[in-house]
Amino acid sequence: MGPPSRRHLAALTLAMFLAPALAQSPPPSLATERAVPFEVIVNGARTGSWLFLERGGVLYAPREAFDEWRVQIQPDAPSIQFKGQEYRPLSAVPGFKAKVDFANQSVELQFSPKAFATLRMERELVKRPPVSPVLPSVFFNYDMSFANASLRDARSTHDLGVLSEVGISTGLGVLSTSSAARNLTNDAALGVRRQWLRLETTYTRDFPEQNRTLRIGDTVTRGAMWGRDVYFGGIRYGTNFALTPGFVSQPLPALSGLSAAPSTVELYVNDVLRQVSNVPTGPFVIDNFPTLTGNGEARLVVRDLLGRETVVVQRFFTSTQLLAAGLDDWSVEAGSVRRDLGIESSHYGQGFASATWRHGRTNELTLEGRAEASRRGGLLGMGVVSLLPWQVLAKAALVASTDSDLGRGGHWLMGLEYETLRGGMSVQVTRSTPSFREVGQETIGGEFALSPIKYQIAGNVLYNTTQFGTLGLGFASIGRFDGSRVSTISGNYSVRIGEKNNLTFTASRAFGGGSGSSVGLIFLVPLDQGRSASATANSRSGKQDLYLAAVQNPGIETDLGWRVLAGQQQNQHHAEGGVYYQGRYGDLSADASTGPAQTAVRVGASGGVVWADRHLFFSRRVDDSFAIAEVPGYANVGIGLGSNVMTRTNANGVALIPRLIPYVANSVRIDPKELPINAEIESIEQIAVPAYRSGVKVAFPVRSGRGALLKIVFDDAEPAPAGAIVKIEGDKEDFYVARRGEAFVTGMMPDSKLRLEWNNKQCPLEVKLPPLNLDEIARVGPVKCAGVAR
């Protein structure tokens, strides 16, 4: 019998090494110590080669191996030191098994899936892109309208009105003011004198790093869950999560599962595939799926390497009314209530100060508080929004107020919401005492224009079926302290007919003040290219509407839109129509209507003007941020956002790009096909991150000229060496000499001055290009370089 082979020796060594470690009760007599490196496979995944240690019949692995395998060790597990490293026993891990492959000198380790650390696939925090430098600019928006009404039994009227806005944006913020001009024709038949009114004047400063916004001037308060927004003039400062793109303030549901081997996880939300992820062995938690609201069902399909599937179904609930745990949302305001907005230029009422604060105590509980103070009194209220069992969202509030004339008052609110995959329902009840007052509920001459609300009840139910449409029911009732009460019940049913058509039936009934009934039917037929047609029948208080309508909406495919309507309204014949145009420099509209009582015509125009970077631009209304794009020397080049060409450069190669999203990376691109063939551009895309309603400058440097292959020789008639540098006078680009003294140089004019640099010396080169031939690359040379040696 011959000597053992290397493979037999390796197998014998592994057998001696693993035999005591794999035994159920290793003999205590074994006190030897062995260390063997071999390749390890953990639950089907290769993890590389590791050095294992066997001591006293127990198998040990390096501590860092457990960390890399994501295997959790019992806290009280013993450890040993070997060559300066900490080793832990594999037996300290639940469900440990091993299988040796002697031929490949590897071992397969099998652990219980629960022994692995939980993998959390969290939503990646959106990195806020750095805001581009603000380009100081001035913008002006206008909206003009002229209307002519020819009355059958009265004098015709002519009305010209203008809404305008002027804004200044700098690195310190945006200051804007809006106004309205009425009856510029001074037509006495309108019953309104010619006048100019200031609407709003506001300074806005964002602090994106803190997600906060400061507004000074005319703005609105942050309404509490029981209150309402109030126009006022003053200062407001508070959180603004919209300043961080992709920020989600509501709690996100976490979906958990377990994989016995490396697997692929498919996430279905309400039977729609939302994402596919790869997970290693062990438990995992997914809380990075797309933001949803309401009640739903998630299905996790875990498929391992062998194709085995495990399906996990979980219910979830999330709502925008809840804040994520630990998150705060707040606002403070101080100023005077704005009264008669749109009627008076500067009519302000009582002064006040207020503060609103919301805090996510947990993902299922959000607390809210609000305080108000004025010379006449104050208010203090607390509210709570909570997720109850069976995924019911509940909210409640209790508010107390005091008034110098009315005394103390109180208000409470309770509401429940429940949503399912098929629909949902909600109900809310509020009640106030006669003396309860909030900011904005002022008396005028000691009297209230409208009696305060005593109670309010509102509820609705929505149910959606797969084949038979959607049914909705609603109820509302409002009672006031003067004894008046109005209640309404309403219902609607909508069903799809065919692939796209939709039929909607509505009915409502009012009780108390303003009693009456209404029944309606609408049949909508969507057509191609943004067109739609509809038929409407409605009966209200004994009067009927019956008409047909067709609409073409302006959009990407066409700048022109129109609408027509004909039939009967309020038991009288009626017809109307309009034409609308959306252009680069503004929007135009024209409408006409005719009926038994009058015929009316209205024409309008709206747009914007921007002064920035010493250029004047005409555009559509500037309601968002914008960019000034520059392609020096190239006119009529298409440019826009992404692949959507929105405008073209003017004679100076400059263009205004409107409708940029603030604090988001906007891709401004030019159409390279519209540049000359001899133009060179480093990139057809530039990223712009503008501030709120501000401009940024985007430059596209373009090199023009022709390209030519130059052959350069030195005084000795030998070609210039490879690596020498060629430059065009006045151009920053470097061109390198390749083999045989040849260099391909672009951006050349018919007569160009160049220079060659080599060994800290340089020589001038004068090159005259041959006539242009689009089918060939110009070849010039040999061009002599004098005064430079090798």
Describe what this molecule looks like in 3D.
- With 790 residues, this protein is mainly beta.
- The protein has 2 helices and 55 strands.
- It has a 24-stranded antiparallel β-barrel.
- It is globular and about 100 Å long.
- The model is unreliable at 1-31 and 444-448 (pLDDT under 50).
Task: Provide a quick synopsis of the model.
The chain is mainly beta and 790 residues long.
Uncertain stretches: 1-31, 444-448
What is the structural class? mainly beta
Alpha-carbon Rg, integer: 38 Å
What is the percentage of strand-forming residues? over 45%
Distance between the termini: 74 Å
Mean pLDDT: 85
Can you count the beta strands?
55
What's the SSE blueprint?
Blueprint: H1 6-22, E1 33-42, E2 45-55, E3 58-62, H2 63-69, E4 80-82, E5 85-89, E6 97-101, E7 106-110, E8 119-122, E9 137-151, E10 157-170, E11 173-182, E12 195-207, E13 212-220, E14 231-239, E15 255-259, E16 263-269, E17 272-279, E18 282-287, E19 294-304, E20 309-318, E21 328-338, E22 348-362, E23 365-374, E24 377-388, E25 392-403, E26 407-420, E27 423-432, E28 453-464, E29 470-480, E30 485-497, E31 501-512, E32 516-526, E33 531-540, E34 543-552, E35 560-569, E36 572-583, E37 586-594, E38 598-612, E39 615-619, E40 625-630, E41 638-641, E42 644-648, E43 654-660, E44 666-670, E45 680-681, E46 685-688, E47 695-699, E48 702-703, E49 706-713, E50 725-728, E51 735-736, E52 742-748, E53 751-758, E54 761-768, E55 778-784
Parallel strand pairs: 1-7, 8-18, 40-47, 49-55
Antiparallel strand pairs: 1-2, 2-3, 3-5, 4-5, 6-7, 9-10, 9-38, 10-11, 11-12, 12-13, 13-14, 14-21, 15-18, 16-17, 16-19, 19-20, 21-22, 22-23, 23-24, 24-25, 25-26, 26-27, 27-28, 28-29, 29-30, 30-31, 31-32, 32-33, 33-34, 34-35, 35-36, 36-37, 37-38, 38-39, 40-43, 41-42, 41-44, 44-46, 45-48, 49-52, ...
